[in-house]
Amino acid sequence: MKRSRPRGTADLILDTAERLVQxxxxxxxxxxxxxEELGIRKASLHHHFATKAELxxxxxxxxxxxxxxxxxxxxxxxxxxxxRLTRYxxxxxxxxRRKRMCLCGMLAADVDTLPAAMRxxxxxxxxxxxxxxxxxxxxxxxxxxxxxxxxxASVARFFVSSLEGAMLVARGGGGGKVFDAxxxxxLAEVGKGAGQARRPARGRQRAARGRTA
Length: 213
Description:
Helix content: over 70%
Low-confidence stretches: 196-213
Strand content: under 5%
């Protein structure tokens, strides 16, 4: 049986800091909070992450890689565009059910106060997220599984913005039902009339065969 790698101090620091960012925000926690929760000295934190900016950069990098792994798992799990969209939305829903927010969404709220490297990393996260989603939307439209107005890039940005906003409203008091309602609306918007474009053509073919017979 393959044994999982023991989690070292750096991993535990990242786990704790990630949760604090997702529940409080980047500017609302300190190394003292992390050291108190883990029962280690602040000097140990500085040994692994010399500055809070360095810790923040490591958090984004790990979160980004984990998100990309999840996107690849969605691709492997199904060829159906609507199923992929549903699973994509669930990435956000699962975070919300843990009473957390998207890490990069929380960082975006503090973006004006973040170091330049962190701002760039947050922007890259959202850009790559939208690029993946746009590609998936394009493929769904080509197959006839999805149907929507506008470019896939604009719809992808609308999806990401809506999901991030729904998480905020849900956390602010609307609850999970708010997020679920937004998710349902998004799926309905890209599914309007999907698969119908080819049906009239088949009807015309049948009619043509009837006239020939």
